[in-house]
Amino acid sequence: MPNKSAFSTLITAVAAWVAVPSLMLFLCSGSARAQINSANYTFAVASGFLCDPGDSGSCPAVAKSVNGDSYEMSGAGTFDAQTRSVKAAGTFTHKSPNGNVLDTGVWLANELLSFDSYGIAPGALRQKGAALGPQTLGAKRLPMSSGPLPTGGLAVFRISLVSLLETSKTAVLQVNCALGKSPRDRSVEGIRLAFEKNPTEFSEEAGGRVMFLSTQARANMAGKLGENSKLPDSADLPKN
Description:
By secondary structure, the chain is an alpha+beta fold. The chain has one domain. The chain has 5 helices and 11 strands, in the order αααβββββαββββββα. It has a 6-stranded antiparallel barrel with strand order 1-3-4-5-6-11. The longest helix has 16 residues, at 4-19.
């Protein structure tokens, strides 16, 4: 078990990192656009601009088991759907049915097991009042953000939960963003958690906002239109 004082500092640092409202702006800046020809995604789990102070159900993301235990999680990161590489981290808190804290710590993504895209939803950021990336002014002004596009999908990660109170555990984390053409059985946004070598599954999405942002989608759109064509207005694109 790690030193509690040092580990508490680590948890605080990770929590501050995933909670910074400008996190997504940073992740979607020039460095992300420079890799626009790869199948890269940025994602947030109940963090950053997704958190609404007036909506307690937006953050953190909560997964519950049939006996009422819950895991509250937040985090952010990037992944490549082709190579299945991932860089992501966040915090977690395990609570009993009556709300007592049973465990807390940080989680780290080890592997992207799969990603199923539901398609883009360009209007999603405007609905949240957020704008990613600079707008181009003049005759070829883009009617929406020039950064990555909001995308619905289901990502499945293998993660490690590094605990302050218990031994570290390995689990499978499902992150579902119900934008785009999400299937009926995945119309609820949120997370699910299943531990290896443990029959208890936290399979009820009990709250939390999540979002994927795709650089590949905009690269494909730009390629089809040609270098001298402006991207279509959001009214001409698929709706979320």
